[in-house]
């Protein structure tokens, strides 16, 4: 990963501040190595022996806020993430929600460009400086609306059919207090302090308009931690995300983003997407008792390199009909990869973009850890729902996971320069 990752045309990019210019100076290389010397920093030598240096590629990479789609959907996986849902406060309606989205959008734009929030020098809510020494670090802030948001803002006529409640699944053990919500925010960055800084800013800007319903923290492998870019592994040690649709696919946009030209009541969602969010606990003690060969048969892929059990490399298409010497399919009938494959779901596909999580050790001594599953699709009824129904009926992975929280959110298209996210809905 090198240079700047941009989600929009650069014609609207503001002039570079001194801070952004300095952060960009480190973006010439792609190895993640220190790129050059810089001025001294008080206290730095107390923790490191080497001389202070310019920002590395990881710190200097910037994702654009404005664009056709919101950031954080097709952005490469980030190392640190926060998911947070809010409910509008009693008495808050459409006017207050619009003001909140305007504030959130302004703060997100500044933070994603590597700038402090407004009022950094004065006032009780000034920027704390948590991320003062870092560059943008691929920060993204993404906003979505839950089904209840439309009721509480008097916009039920504009609530799209894709927000109809998800059906129940037999593997669900859902905590209502950690599910759904009026508003949803996804934060991701390649630096944990940058991500936390954005989380605090979003929470503070909610002020008296909205209260936190639930919040979850996640992580992924840090860019540059492997010799070359690789598909991420989950906490089960499996390569996770091989079968994702790719932006280069001819049908990528139709699978992931909501098209225009449909019912005018839902025009505000053009270029947007639907996010299904699931907190999936992994029963790691049980999983880790299985020999690797058994784990591979549960998933349908080799653990070492993610290749399908039918042969080849990670990117080789699965041969679902290929049998072994015993006449049985090399990829078992109940293997997770087989059941969830588009070939077995009438082409249904979704863009999975998860974070792992670890929330400590439970009283019984087992780790409270797993996956903050986030998937993006143009229509949940043709993406997540049919695949999850299939998995619910016979996935070999089911005994080793538990779905503990769930949410469904309509994520508007990106904001144009001068707009705030959701403006086309809230000012319709």
TrEMBL record:
Recorded coiled-coil stretches: none
Pfam families: Dyp_perox_C (PF20628), Dyp_perox_N (PF04261)
EC primary class: oxidoreductase
Names of required cofactors: heme b
Subcellular location: Cell envelope
Annotated signal sequence range: none
Keyword Manganese found: no
Family statement: Belongs to the DyP-type peroxidase family.
This protein's name: Deferrochelatase
Source organism (scientific name): Streptomyces drozdowiczii
Lineage: Bacteria, Bacillati, Actinomycetota, Actinomycetes, Kitasatosporales
């Amino acid at each position: 990963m090198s240079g700047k990752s941009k989600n929009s045309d650069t014609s609207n990019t503001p002039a570079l501040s001194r801070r952004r210019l300095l952060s960009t100076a480190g973006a010439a290389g792609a190895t993640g190595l220190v790129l050059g010397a810089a001025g001294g920093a008080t206290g730095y030598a107390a923790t490191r022996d080497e001389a202070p240096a310019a920002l590395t590629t990881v710190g200097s990479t910037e994702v654009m806020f404005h664009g056709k789609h919101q950031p954080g959907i097709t952005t490469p996986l980030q190392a640190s993430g926060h998911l947070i849902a809010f409910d509008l406060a009693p008495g808050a309606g459409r006017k207050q929600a619009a003001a909140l989205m305007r504030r959130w959008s302004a703060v997100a734009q500044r933070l994603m460009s590597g700038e402090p929030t407004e009022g950094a020098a004065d006032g009780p809510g000034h920027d704390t400086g948590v991320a003062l020494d870092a560059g943008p670090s691929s920060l993204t802030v993404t906003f979505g609306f839950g089904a209840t948001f439309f009721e509480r803002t008097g916009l039920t006529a504009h609530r799209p059919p894709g927000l109809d409640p998800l059906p129940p699944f037999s593997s669900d053990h859902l905590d209502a207090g950690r599910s759904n919500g009026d508003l949803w925010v996804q934060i991701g960055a390649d630096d944990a302090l940058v991500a936390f800084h954005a989380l605090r800013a979003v929470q503070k800007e909610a002020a008296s308009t909205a209260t936190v319903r639930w919040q979850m923290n996640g992580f992924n492998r840090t860019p540059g931690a492997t010799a070359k870019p690789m598909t991420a592994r989950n906490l089960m040690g499996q390569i996770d995300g091989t079968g994702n649709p790719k932006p280069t696919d001819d049908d990528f946009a139709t699978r992931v983003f909501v098209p225009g030209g449909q019912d005018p009541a839902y025009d505000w969602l053009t270029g947007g997407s639907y996010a299904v969010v699931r907190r999936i606990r992994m029963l790691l003690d049980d999983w880790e008792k299985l020999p690797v060969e058994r784990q591979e048969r549960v998933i349908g892929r080799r653990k070492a390199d993610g290749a399908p059990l039918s042969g080849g490399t990670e990117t080789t298409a699965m041969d679902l009909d290929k049998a072994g010497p015993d006449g049985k399919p090399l990829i078992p009938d109940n293997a997770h990869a087989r059941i969830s494959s588009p070939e077995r779901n009438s082409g249904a596909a979704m863009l999975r973009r998860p974070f792992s999580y670890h929330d400590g050790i439970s009283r019984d001594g087992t780790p409270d850890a797993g996956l903050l599953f986030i998937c993006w699709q143009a229509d949940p009824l043709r993406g997540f729902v049919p695949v999850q129904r299939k998995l619910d009926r016979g996935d070999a992975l089911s005994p080793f996971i538990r779905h503990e929280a769930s949410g469904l959110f309509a994520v508007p298209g990106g904001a144009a320069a001068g707009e705030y996210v959701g403006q086309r809905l809230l000012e319709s």
